[in-house]
Amino acid sequence: MKYLIVFAVVFIAIYLWRKGRRDELRSRPPPPAAPRQVPPPESMTRCAHCGLHLPQADAIAGPDGSYCSQAHRQAGAR
Ligand SMILES: [Zn+2]
Hints:
Bound molecules: zinc ion
Strand order of the largest sheet: 1-2
Distance between the termini: 95 Å
Largest sheet: 2 strands, antiparallel
Strand content: 15-25%
Order of helices and strands: HEEEEH
Structural class: alpha+beta
Radius of gyration: 33 Å
Helix content: 40-55%
Number of helices: 2
């Protein structure tokens, strides 16, 4: 009989502890949606020789447009 009382007390304690945790979780406001860090769109260009699309910043300017590499700039537009 003594063990039954101890068991009941432990059970109630665990129940109250879990209930408290649940209430704590419920009372906490949901985390605000993190603003997505979207990089600004980079302007793309097309290699006049091979047609590869590459960022404007990486392109090499040539007489007939942009090129992906120095070799293609020298090869020129097709
Ligand atoms: Zn190219």
